[in-house]
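Severity: low
Component: inverse-folding endpoint
Summary: output formatting inconsistent between runs
Steps to reproduce: submit the following structure tokens with default settings.
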């Protein structure tokens, strides 16, 4: 069964996410937004911070549902952007979303986060079977290996 992506919702997630300023070391507002989005769903949200205590990492675990094996899937993103996205204003130009030119869009992995949100919500809304899912969102992509080891050890 192939379900169509809910494009308006996916685009809405993306537009909301790019408005959140999240340069390296200041990803907390984005982490909070993700926790808020996932809070009504049957997930386990595990948050820890970097070794220096300032940068959030999120692991969102979803137990399998009606899946015949012990398979699991890891979906991975990062929450930081290069600077500056403070005061971002996006402009929709047909099928293209861009900024007004005063900031970057910060779309490199916020688009990935929006896609993961849409996939997971599609699974929940359509009562589909799925393996154990882990959505791993780190403070910055270069820290993925260390952050993943710390999250897995502490969860």
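Observed output (run 2 of 3):
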């Amino acid at each position: 069964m192939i379900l169509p992506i809910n494009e308006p919702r996916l685009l809405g997630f993306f537009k909301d996410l790019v408005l959140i300023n999240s340069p390296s070391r200041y990803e907390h507002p984005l982490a909070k937004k993700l926790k808020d989005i996932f809070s009504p769903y049957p997930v386990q949200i595990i948050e820890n911070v970097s070794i220096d205590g300032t940068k959030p990492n999120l692991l969102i675990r979803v137990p399998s549902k009606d899946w015949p094996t012990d398979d699991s899937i890891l979906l991975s993103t990062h929450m930081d952007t290069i600077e500056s996205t403070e005061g971002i204003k996006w402009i929709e130009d047909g099928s293209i979303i861009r900024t007004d030119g005063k900031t970057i869009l910060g779309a490199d992995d916020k688009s990935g986060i929006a896609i993961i949100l849409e996939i997971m919500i599609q699974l929940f809304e359509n009562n589909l079977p799925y393996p154990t899912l882990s959505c791993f969102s780190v403070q910055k992509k270069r820290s993925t290996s260390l952050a993943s080891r710390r999250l897995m050890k502490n969860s």
